[in-house]
Design a protein that fits this description.
single chain, 153 residues, mainly alpha, Four Helix Bundle (Hemerythrin (Met), subunit A), 5 helices, 85% helix, elongated
Amino acid sequence: MRSSSRATTRILATATDPGCWVAAAAVVAVAAGFAASRLTAADSAVQTDQVAGFMRAKLGHSQNVLEGLAVEDFDLIDKGAQQLSLASEDASWQVLQTEDYARQSADFRRSCDSLRKAAKAKNLDGAALAWMEVTMKCVQCHKYVRDERPPSN
């Protein structure tokens, strides 16, 4: 029994030592930091998957517009343009919070509106020209986002 009480005394003495608490706090801080970084990485992966899914949906809407132009289906052009415009108002669209990004999004919606007007007027040449404008807005904005976003680890 005597050795047991000595061990208990050593443990209690060590537990009351300020250096022990500093070391324990450091271990907890490192573990918490590691856990937070793992959660952040997991959250980032989920966010990346959501953005990728959203981008795929935008691409699908774009393909609808192009198909409508190719087969002269003005309803398909209108529907694709409307879906693109609505997508630009979705929270998933808002990847940057800058004035320039907001302006580019508004310009994109105006281009989609021009495309819808041409489709409603059954003006194929006007719709094709408006589609080129929408496409240019996409390319310009994607370039802007790539240039403005910090590199991911």
